[in-house]
Amino acid sequence: MAALEEAAPTQDEEVAAMFDLSKMKKKKKKKKVQEEETAKTDSKYANYTYDELLDRVAKIIQEKNPELGEKRRHTMKPPQLMRIGTKKTLWVNYAEICKAMNRSPEHVFQYFMAELGTDGSIDGTQRLIIKGKYMPKYIESLLRKYIVEYVTCQMCRSPQTSLTRDPTSRLYFLHCQNCGSSRSVTPIRAGFHAQTRADRRALRK
């Protein structure tokens, strides 16, 4: 009888049989190692700025998925301008540029008239006639501003976008055909424009 009592498992042994304590110890040790590795990783990246981390992520994505990192280069002809007399400028390839941007000539016209602070018209061959004398480089700089605001997707930098107007709010929205993102664009309003002789004379008076 005494021998049987001695052979009976103790309460601690029964608990140990129910729960594999050796595995729990291993799990605790593994968790501790993972926490230490996480702490090391956090301290490693603590010295990086947000932009640097974004660059690292983009680089890793490009290395793992080369097809996603490919960027197509989009080229566009610069504005071709001609003088009409002494007071007007003719934009010869206006229609071609509007078509390349996939934007309506009317919207581009509104933008340029507001930015230049002048009047103009589109003739029968879809060329833009601008009142005033303007250099090609200046028109090109305004065209670049238009492309950034009304053509280029801010998420993926793709120019493959469409511009639609909401009938209720009357706001324009830019929809990207590449990544699917959408954003509202700023309404066209008058901007700074080059001073003409008439402007300088008006300021003197």
TrEMBL record:
GO terms for molecular function: mRNA binding; translation initiation factor activity; translation initiation factor binding. SUPFAM superfamilies: Translation initiation factor 2 beta, aIF2beta, N-terminal domain, Zinc-binding domain of translation initiation factor 2 beta. GO terms for cellular component: eukaryotic translation initiation factor 2 complex. GO terms for biological process: formation of translation preinitiation complex. Residues 71-182 form the Translation initiation factor IF2/IF5 domain. It comes from the Eukaryota. Keywords: Initiation factor, Protein biosynthesis. Gene3D superfamilies: 3.30.30.170. Belongs to the eIF-2-beta/eIF-5 family. This is Translation initiation factor IF2/IF5 domain-containing protein.
